[in-house]
Amino acid sequence: MRHLLIPWVLILMTLPCQAMAATKPDPLCAPLRAFASSVQPDQTKSLEFHTSWGGGFKGSDKRTMYEVQCIDHGYAPAKAVCKQLMEQGAVEFSGENAKRALVCLSQGTQFGQNHLQLEQAEFSFYFGTEQRGSNITMQFQQDPKMGGMVLSITAEGY
């Protein structure tokens, strides 16, 4: 009887670990929230994350499978977001970056795994409180200038 219990005990012991792994915070959220919080009233800050899958950007001389670029406009909090996107951003399914950013900044927003694939989207919402925060505009779309896709995040402080 004891031999039959050991596999079940081992399975039950791993369940809390699996649950904890499923709720692990997205590493994009902290720098993205810091970016949105940092924008002062009457200030506008933005960043753009460009991705190209199946080749490089227009005019690129490289023979490559993909290419990425993030423009932070010299703003340190945007640079931290760009660093995270450059290290862990999706390229082939770049709509995942928009979904991740929306979940990070829009409290209570959730997406089922692999149930929604974004091809193009625009979202507007506020981040913070009614008295102090940022109006956020996120756009995910094809980039006619560079080629590929671009995720643009703009924060207007109030």
Could you give a short description of this structure?
The protein has 158 residues and is α+β, with helices and mostly antiparallel strands. The chain has helices spanning 2-22, 29-38, 76-88, 95-105; strands at 44-53, 66-71, 121-128, 133-142, 149-157. β4 (133-142) and β5 (149-157) form a beta hairpin.
Number of helices: 4
Q: What amount of the residues lies in strands?
A: 25-35%
The coarse silhouette is: globular
Mean pLDDT metric: 88
| Structural class computed from helices and strand pairing | alpha+beta
Order of helices and strands: HHEEHHEEE
Total count of strands:
5
Strand count, sense and barrel status of the largest sheet are: 5 strands, antiparallel
As residue ranges, the low-confidence spans are 5-21
Side-by-side strand order of the widest sheet: 2-1-5-4-3
**Number of domain units:** 1
* Fraction in helix: 25-40%
Alpha carbon gyration radius = 19 Å
Q: What is the terminal-to-terminal distance?
A: 66 Å
Written overview of the protein:
The protein is of the alpha+beta class and 158 residues long. It has helices spanning 2-22, 29-38, 76-88, 95-105, and strands at 44-53, 66-71, 121-128, 133-142, 149-157. It has one domain (26-157). The protein has a five-stranded antiparallel beta sheet, covered by helices on one side. A hairpin with a 6-residue loop joins strand 4 and strand 5. The model is unreliable at 5-21 (pLDDT under 50).
